[in-house]
Amino acid sequence: MSEIDTYLALQLESPEKFRQVISDNIKDVAVEQFNRDHLHLLEIFLRFHAVMENFRMSLVSEAGWDEVEGVLVDLADYTKTHLDAEEAAMKRVDFPDLMSHLAAHDRFRLMVSAYQEVVSARDPVKLFALKYNLFDWFFKHINTLDVRYAPFLGGH
Prior knowledge:
- The chain is mainly alpha-helical.
- It is built from six helices and no strands.
- Helix content is 85%, strand content 0%.
- The chain is globular.
């Protein structure tokens, strides 16, 4: 079982413990605002997971689609603010891995946009893949990529 699968299984067992374990396993990126942003993004992901679980349990409903759509709008809006701030900070310090980091951000923006289209098309099969993809991207990105800018941005 992958780390992401373990986290998702834990969510079903104990949502409170899940939230704590996830929060404890997000690495510090040395910029307090970005650490707070990451926790806020986590809260959006947790809302998404709760909505998806309700959506799954009630079988597909229009109200469920509207909830999913609302969470994805929140995610897209907050992601834009956060990623723009990270990118501006990395540019200010001439972060050496800027181009690959920007590419990773662009891939995430495209993923969120693609899932907004899935919601618009009301495609439940593709929608459920998002639950896994969001967490996978979130942890890999913060814990392997964002931590690389910490030495450059720490104290800025």
